[in-house]
Design a protein that fits this description.
- With about 290 residues, the chain is mostly helical.
- It has one domain.
- It contains 14 helices and no strands.
- α4 crosses α9, α7 runs antiparallel to α9 and α8 packs across α9.
- It is globular and about 60 Å long.
Length: about 290
């Protein structure tokens, strides 16, 4: 069934998910060492609201089967607005508890570094935007759900090197963060060139653009390319410029406040590595000593 403004199809899932996130945040931030500031609460609330809007009717319905322009706008809301707001709203101790399990800590520690983050976001944005995947998603709701989750994951990864929330990871200088963000504005959006310059529409599974938005398929695709570049350039370069303007040249690469949670996490990683080494060593005691 096609999209129609006069026939809204609301789903309770985005709202229930948003309320669940807020309930979890309320519980997590009311523990003794995890109190959130008023600003952090506002950031997290705005992030949840943005996420609900991006995954609800009409935007989600338009992005699912009608318009590439709507799909790009949905992705930008998730990546450029919801993800950084949610990270900014997380107190350090709450973020530390989230990443404490060894598998999550392994992922987070690598995602917080610029090169792995850049590679991850580039791959995810490319895979979730190529015509075959978008086409498959128009007829399979679970694929669309996976695409949205992957986009949200990529958004978190994109901002982790900039918004320090992973314990025990060296902080980048503001200048390094600015350079990283400029690189992020270029690499993940290279498909937008194909959208702008392709002589015909590439996404044949998307239809009804004229009835819903007053655009033909090719015009919808071309506008998507411009929006993709404008959104990423506008947001990431603005943040990069702000970082560049306040970056002191004498600031060392690993500067930033050292908290006990950073030391504790570094010790935990060293202990895990020692246990893995002991397990791989023939005749070794799991506690690290040789077996007589």
């Amino acid at each position: 069934m096609g999209f129609a403004w006069a026939d809204p199809t609301f789903s309770a899932l985005p709202l229930v998910t948003g309320l669940g996130l807020l309930a979890w945040y309320h519980e997590a931030t009311h523990r003794v060492a995890s109190h959130a500031t008023t600003r952090q609460r506002l950031w997290f609330l705005l992030g949840v609201v943005t996420l609900v809007i991006a995954t609800s009717w009409p935007l989600n319905s338009l992005a699912s089967s009608v318009s590439l322009l709507a799909l790009v706008f949905q992705r930008e809301l998730i990546v450029l607005v919801a993800a950084p707001l949610l990270l900014l709203g997380l107190p350090t101790m709450v973020a530390a508890r989230l990443s404490r399990p060894a598998p999550l800590d392994w992922i987070a520690a690598r995602a917080a570094k610029p090169v792995p983050a850049l590679v991850t976001t580039t791959v995810v944005f490319m895979v979730t935007a190529v015509p075959p995947v978008v086409t498959y998603g128009t007829s399979h709701a679970w694929v669309r759900s996976v695409m949205i989750l992957a986009t949200f994951f990529a958004g978190i990864v994109l901002w982790l090197p900039v918004i320090n929330r992973v314990p025990g990871v060296p902080h980048l200088r503001p200048m390094s963060k600015a350079v990283y963000l400029m690189a992020q504005s270029l690499a993940p959006t290279f498909l937008s060139f194909a959208w702008v310059f392709a002589p015909h529409a590439l996404y044949h599974s998307l239809h009804g653009q004229h009835a819903a938005l007053g655009l033909n398929p090719l015009g919808d695709q071309q506008l998507s390319g411009y929006l993709s570049k404008l959104g990423f350039f506008g947001v990431l370069w603005s943040v990069a410029f702000a970082l560049f303007m306040r970056a002191p040249e004498e600031e060392p690469e690993d500067s930033g406040p050292l908290h006990w949670i950073d030391v504790e996490r570094a010790i935990e990683r060293a202990q895990r590595q020692e246990r893995r080494g002991a397990a791989l060593t023939p005749g070794a005691d799991p506690d690290g000593g040789p077996i007589d």
